[in-house]
Design goal:
Chain lengths: 155, 429
């Protein structure tokens, strides 16, 4: 199996937050940037955190860890690994908002969705895409897809 | 030759043991024994069930397909009576089964205090750790149209029960032996914030007190008498003062136990082919470096997973076992880690940020420039980062002032750790 990876390169991040904007758009009902931001629908939460201070900035989302602590800490079995894509996903029907996942994630990248019944909200890798919205729309290669030799893969 | 695995207990430790084994051994046979009748359920969710927020089906945390996919022979409603270590056989009420590796994940049982008169009561006194307890309470309060209840114990069990009953519009009196609720999980301020919230909801909290005596009428509970002499009329008493390891199946065996079954960092007992994990096990705690029982979900999960992997021939260790809990009380999310209330001493440094009005509180406990405990109350966003800092014993001396800041995140962490976390392994796709 080819092991492509999405990696973060903080030295290239400009803190432009385009990843965040496109993540929100991608997870909105219309998937249309204007309607997402100017429409009446509640905007979804961004699944990517952009952190910025002075010259340093980076964007980080769920790492879909191989040995994911959120999977085993989940009280309800809502958190699961997708068999096909290997992404760690949260079944919104099962989640009760116990926040065990928030507690054990060392990256701190699982959010509490206040609108949606107070359940966990996280990156779904744009449902298993090799080019999630954040990767596709990063203008400076701060989030990229690489092959097993670390070479960047173009879409 | 295929390995034969037997797992006693089908809760979080047992289920993670299955996952641990199957990650490395697809061939071996796995038999799981559970004394519960249903497929499986998440014990912490019984308060959601009692509150009426979840139905019974929603309590299950692994579906039927999980057992099929992992090729598990699951015996529900089956008690294990005896383990014969010499012949490697477990005896159940239905038969005997040979094993090469055994996992004991029998969990805990509720602590019952000695209360005078308790033996004369047939109706009205309950514990609150199993689904059957929640069902009994539910049908009792419905049948008797209960409007007031007494709960003994202001810890996690007692408070989650109180919360569920409050949602059913039942007024509550909580009786706690210590001078505050949640004495083992929280510090004074955090306890106070939750206590005030409880009082707001009409719940009475009686501290530094316990129940000495109970009175019955026709074998039904009528009133409880506190150690200060106070009498409280009630038809229902729920005892939720804690759990003890369920050690029955290791009695009369040479498996070493103290408070719980003693395991090493591989979750192995003194008998090399017998492992244990979850609320029944006693293992090395990371901060005190002493052997303790930590009866909480994520610890049980980890223990089960590690044990399973090792039973399948791996050599994994449980590094960094410490108490941590995430519990919401009356709409206030809380997360606590490790030592939250250290003794008054120069060895500990505390960093705090409080907004009592908004029920927001953050506290970090530091020893030797590393974090050994924390409380997040009200706002728990990014709390998980603390787990990593504790486990990896990261020196936070340069960022102490930033630990309680509102924009606490990975960015404020020491550079080497930040880079390690951000760059990391990448996401495999």
């Amino acid at each position: 199996m080819v092991k492509n990876k999405i990696i973060i390169r903080e030295e290239f991040c400009m803190g432009c937050r385009l990843c965040e904007i496109y993540c929100i758009t991608q997870h909105s009902k219309t998937k249309d940037i204007i309607r997402t931001y100017k429409g009446k629908e509640q905007k979804p939460l961004s699944a990517i955190y952009v952190e910025e201070s002075g010259h340093i900035s980076f964007a980080i989302q769920c790492r879909h860890c191989e040995d994911a602590p959120c999977l085993e800490a989940c009280l309800t079995g809502a958190m699961y690994r997708d068999e096909k894509t290997q992404a760690v996903l949260c079944n919104k029907e099962k989640c009760v908002g116990c926040w065990m996942c928030v507690m054990v994630c060392p990256f701190g990248v699982i959010k509490i969705d206040p609108e949606n019944k107070r359940i966990a909200s996280k990156c779904d890798l744009c449902t298993g895409s090799n080019f999630p919205a954040c990767v596709e729309n990063c203008p400076n290669e701060a989030i990229i897809l690489v092959d097993e030799n670390g070479e960047k893969i173009e879409k | 030759m295929k390995s034969r695995y037997v797992i006693v207990g089908n809760s979080v430790a047992g289920i993670n043991c299955i996952e641990g084994i199957r990650e490395f051994d697809r061939e071996g046979t796995i038999i799981v024994f559970s004394d519960e009748e249903i497929l499986n359920y998440s014990r912490p969710l019984i308060s959601y069930y009692l509150a009426g927020r979840l139905n019974e089906d929603a309590l299950s945390f692994r579906d039927k397909r999980f057992y099929e996919r992992n090729n598990i022979n699951l015996f529900t409603g089956t008690s294990v009576r005896k383990i014969d270590i010499r012949t490697k056989i477990v005896y159940t009420d239905k038969g005997k089964y040979e094993f090469d590796y055994l996992f004991i994940g029998t969990g805990g049982k509720p602590i019952m205090p000695t209360i005078s008169g308790i033996d004369k009561i047939k109706e009205g006194i309950f514990t609150f750790t199993k689904l059957s307890d929640a069902k009994k309470i539910k049908s009792f309060i419905e049948k008797e149209k209960i409007q007031e209840a007494v709960i003994l114990g202001g810890g996690l069990i007692g408070l989650k029960c109180a919360e569920a009953l409050l949602e059913r519009k039942i007024s509550i009196k909580i009786i706690e032996l210590a001078d505050r609720i949640l004495p083992n999980t929280f510090d004074h301020l955090a306890s106070e914030i939750i206590e005030n919230k409880l009082k707001e909801k009409g719940c009475e909290v009686i501290k530094k007190n316990t129940i000495e005596k109970v009175h019955a009428r026709n074998s039904k509970l009528k009133e409880v008498i506190l150690s200060d002499g106070r009498k409280i009329k009630t038809q229902i008493l729920i005892v939720g003062i804690g759990v003890l390891p369920e050690l029955k199946i290791v009695e009369n065996t040479e498996i070493l136990r103290n408070r719980g079954i003693i395991v090493n960092e591989h979750m192995q007992t003194n008998i090399p082919f017998i492992y244990a994990g979850g609320d029944v096990a006693e293992a090395d705690e990371f901060i005190s470096e002493k052997k303790v029982v930590i009866p909480i979900w994520p610890v049980a999960a980890r223990m089960g997973k590690i044990a399973g992997a090792n039973m399948a021939g791996e050599n994994k260790k449980y590094d960094g076992m410490f108490a941590m809990n995430s519990v919401e009380f009356l709409g206030i999310p809380t997360i606590s880690f490790g030592m939250t209330n250290p003794p008054d001493s120069e060895n500990y440094q505390i960093i705090k940020k409080v907004d009592v009005e908004k029920s927001i509180y953050k506290k970090i406990v530091i020893r030797d420039n590393t974090i050994i405990g924390a409380i997040y109350l009200g706002n728990i966003e990014r709390a998980g980062i603390i787990t990593g800092l504790i486990k990896n014993r990261i020196d936070i001396s340069s960022i102490k002032h930033l630990l309680s800041s509102d924009n606490f995140g990975l960015l404020v962490l020491p550079e080497a750790y930040r880079k390690h976390m951000v760059k990391g392994e990448g996401i495999e796709v």
